[in-house]
């Protein structure tokens, strides 16, 4: 009986120890506590992005990687220097610190991306990447705002790497004139991605798009072939005109000029006439 009590006591002690250890292990994981993406889309289909990220770092990290959208330009990180790398086509900033990174750190990243609009059959489509799929940590809270150049009547669509279009079931967002704002109500896994697409009518976005759509390609091909046809016509007409001028000079040179050894092909029309007058 005594042995049974001791065994039960020992088992309870082990269970209590394990219960105390679970929070400690859970806290020993780096996590993104908050992330906010603010997007300012202009009329040409380019976007300036400000991303604010707060990371709760477990232990000490020598470097921190901040992934951005593909082809990000005009990059800056407030208060930090970075090394720019590329992973699977995505821009990744590597931050380093002599003392390493620990505790809760907030990073503010600014960059621009372009070529976000395609056009086909008089419909323009904006595809905006909100979250690059290279973040190494889970995200507890995610918010975003998107400011567009004008009001629109269509409805945005969202998709993520893990949830697909079902991600809309786990988020709330509002659309008001040219503004879209939203919050994801569930935690996101590490390496999650998020993008938004919006279709608008012809003329909503203006200017040159960096990404070629099928309509632009067809137009470019027509222009190239038209230029080649014009060049071929110009080259083919020039030899015939030159042959006509030589024939005119030959007919203008009198026989006496030819007997004197003049080369009719080398005489301009005016010289041929002067020679004829003198011989007469």
Give a structural overview.
It is a single chain. The protein is an alpha+beta fold. Helix content is 29%, strand content 39%. The chain contains 4 helices and 12 strands; from the N terminus they run H-E-E-E-E-E-E-E-E-E-E-E-E-H-H-H. A hairpin with a 2-residue loop joins strand 10 and strand 11. The longest helix has 39 residues, at 214-252. It is globular and about 115 Å long. The termini are far apart.
Oligomeric category: single chain
Low-confidence stretches: 18-26, 210-217, 256-280
Order of helices and strands: HEEEEEEEEEEEEHHH
Shape: globular
- Gyration radius over CA: 37 Å
Summarize model confidence as the mean pLDDT: 80
Strand runs, count:
12
Q: What fraction of the residues are assigned to beta strands by DSSP?
A: 35-45%
What percentage of residues falls in helices of 4 or more residues?
Answer: 25-40%
Count of separate DSSP helical elements: 4
């Amino acid at each position: 009986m005594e042995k049974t009590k001791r065994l039960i006591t020992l088992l309870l002690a082990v269970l209590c120890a394990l219960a105390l250890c679970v929070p400690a292990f859970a806290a020993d994981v780096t996590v993104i506590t908050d992330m906010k993406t603010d997007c300012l889309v202009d009329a040409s289909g380019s976007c300036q992005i400000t991303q604010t990220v707060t990371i709760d770092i477990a232990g000490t990290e020598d470097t921190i990687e901040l992934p951005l959208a593909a082809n990000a330009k005009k990059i800056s990180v407030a208060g930090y220097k970075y090394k720019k790398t590329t992973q699977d086509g995505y821009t990744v900033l590597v931050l380093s610190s002599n003392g390493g990174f620990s505790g809760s750190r907030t990073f503010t990243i600014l960059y621009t991306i372009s070529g976000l609009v395609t056009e086909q059959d008089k419909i323009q489509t904006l595809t905006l990447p909100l979250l690059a799929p290279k973040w190494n940590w889970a995200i507890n809270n995610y918010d975003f705002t998107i400011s567009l150049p004008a009001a629109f009547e269509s409805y945005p669509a969202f998709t993520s790497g893990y949830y697909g279009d079902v991600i809309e079931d786990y988020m709330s967002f509002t659309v008001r004139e040219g503004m879209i704002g939203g919050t994801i109500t569930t935690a996101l896994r590490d390496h999650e991605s998020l993008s938004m697409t919006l279709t608008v009518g012809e003329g909503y976005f203006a200017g040159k798009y960096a990404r070629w759509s099928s309509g632009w390609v067809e137009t470019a091909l027509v222009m190239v072939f038209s230029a080649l046809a014009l060049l071929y016509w110009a080259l083919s007409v020039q030899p015939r005109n030159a042959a006509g001028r030589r024939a005119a000079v030959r007919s203008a040179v009198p026989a006496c000029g030819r007997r004197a050894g003049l080369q009719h092909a080398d005489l301009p029309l005016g010289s041929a006439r002067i020679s004829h007058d003198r011989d007469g």
